[in-house]
Amino acid sequence: MSIVDWPEGERPREKLLTRGATALSDAELLAIFLRTGVAGMSAVDLARDLLVKYGSLTGLFAADQAGFCAVKGVGVAKYAQLQAVLEMSRRAIQEELQRGDVLSSPRAVRDYLKLLLAGRGQEVFMVLFLDTQHRVIAFEELFQGTLSQTSVYPREVVKRALAHNAAAVILAHNHPSGVTEPSQADQLLTSALKQALALVDVTVLDHFVVAAGQTLSFAERGLL
């Protein structure tokens, strides 16, 4: 049955307009983005198939062009639209972080990191550079590694902090394994970076691990 034949209150677009976006399931939200289905499948059915294929919205957002376009019913245009939506989301959150103290917007920090890091196929280490008011100066991807480890050099992090005249930093990296629990190596690295940055009066405010759409904060765990 086509979505136009559904009761009006159950159609995703009408449901969103009357009850708000939070009332919709992931599949319903994705169906609004897709707009149309394919022969024998409504947009919601197609959305469900995509979520099954990629496991979650996070997995879908990380899909490469070839894999995404191989799904019947979507193509290059939809892939381009999806990437545009993701980039707009990143920029909107980045603007929020640049307007004020990041410590007053912890959820925005987490959302931003998830959009940047979740679903990456290899381990990536990033640094958020902040001014004395804890406003964002820059966000840089400094190191990439294999699925199991990243080589991070404290000297390079210090050099970038000095280049940005940063007063504080937030560290972040992902775990492609899907496990957010920090390893002993993660804790040793954080300690080394904290000590190195302290020598140039730069404070490490937090270190986040992103995995499977979840984030773990070193500060909240008492690991800083």
Structure description:
The chain is of the alpha+beta class. The protein is 46% helix and 16% strand. The chain is built from ten helices and five strands, in the order αααααααββαβαββα. The chain has helices spanning 12-19, 26-34, 43-54, 57-61, 65-69, 76-99, 106-117, 154-163, 184-198, 218-221; strands spanning 124-130, 136-144, 168-174, 203-211, 214-217. The protein has a five-stranded mixed beta sheet, with helices on both faces. Helix 9 (184-198) links the parallel strand 3 and strand 4. Helix 2 (26-34) packs across helix 3 and helix 8 crosses helix 9. The longest helix has 24 residues, at 76-99. It is elongated, with a radius of gyration of 20 Å.
Question: How is the topology of this model organized?
Answer:
Elements: H1 12-19, H2 26-34, H3 43-54, H4 57-61, H5 65-69, H6 76-99, H7 106-117, E1 124-130, E2 136-144, H8 154-163, E3 168-174, H9 184-198, E4 203-211, E5 214-217, H10 218-221
Parallel strand pairs: 3-4
Antiparallel strand pairs: 1-2, 1-3, 4-5
